[in-house]
Specification:
The chain is built from 6 helices and no strands. It has 260 residues and is an all-alpha fold. The longest helix has 52 residues. It is flat. The relative contact order is 0.16.
Length: 260
């Protein structure tokens, strides 16, 4: 059963990857191209400024590094491969989490459980970390701090997931004493309080140049969130439908065996 769910989860992830790639190609890539153009223009202005300040007769050698991967490949085949592999892996992990939660998270139907899990994952893995460390175009940020920034981002994801699990356990205990509605509100309050405290404690990072267009930065970040929203909503809805069909098929098979 778990193997069948895993296969359906990866299938849902592949479909989600196709839709996410289409969105990224149409909406996200223009922002990336504009950000790269901004970076190149800033580099040219800096080079011209250094040339103007240099002593007369000084020789300047300009080295042009060749791209290991062309921009066209990055925005086409490279983007498609990365998104498809990532989405398929996420779909497989989602199926495993669904298999564990099924029957333990209450009397949810397959579609309802899948949708709720996808929504919870989107909030914990995407929304919460991006509130503290939002996505930036490739032209923004100091290359020397990329490891530090990446570490903080994944730390925020880990803390968010742990806070979500703890809040769900608190909800289970609170429901027995205060009821489902009040227990859910209490659990949500616990999650928000933990995340707020952690985000205040963690260091802030702002390496966006003052001259970078605010509208372009906003478009890029909205595109990044949109990609994740498409991926998680597709996985949650499509996997739920596939899991429900599998559940119905299994139920019919068991009924046939019982009759014989």
């Amino acid at each position: 059963m778990v193997g069948k769910l895993l296969a359906r989860g990866m299938l849902a992830g592949i479909v989600a990857g196709l839709l996410t790639f289409g969105f990224a190609r149409i909406v996200g890539e223009p922002s990336v191209d504009q950000a790269i153009s901004f970076e190149e223009k800033m580099a040219e202005d800096h080079a011209q400024h250094e040339h103007a300040d240099a002593p007369a007769g000084a020789a300047h050698e300009h080295e042009h590094e060749e791209e290991l991967v062309s921009r066209a490949t990055q925005a086409g085949l490279g983007l498609f491969t990365g998104v498809a592999v990532y989405s398929a892996a996420i779909g497989g992990l989602f199926a495993l989490v669904y298999a564990y939660a099924y029957g333990r998270a209450g009397s949810f139907s397959a579609r309802a459980l899948s949708a709720w899990l996808a929504l919870a994952a989107f909030i914990a893995i995407v929304i919460v970390p991006n509130l503290k460390y939002p996505a930036n175009p490739p032209s923004i940020g100091d290359p020397e701090t990329i490891g530090y920034r990446t570490g903080l981002f994944f730390l925020m994801i880990a803390i968010s997931i742990a806070a979500a699990v703890f809040s769900l356990k608190a909800r289970r205990h609170a429901m027995a004493r205060f009821g489902a509605w009040n227990g859910s509100i209490l659990a949500a309050g616990i999650f928000v309080a933990i995340i707020a405290a952690v985000q205040i404690a963690l260091p802030a990072i702002n390496e966006v140049p003052a001259a970078f267009p605010a509208a372009l930065l906003w478009k890029f970040r909205m595109a990044a969130i949109g990609m994740q929203a498409i991926m998680w909503s597709t996985i949650g809805l499509l996997f739920g439908a596939l899991a429900e069909r599998l559940e119905t098929r299994q139920y019919r098979h068991l009924n046939q065996e019982a009759r014989t």
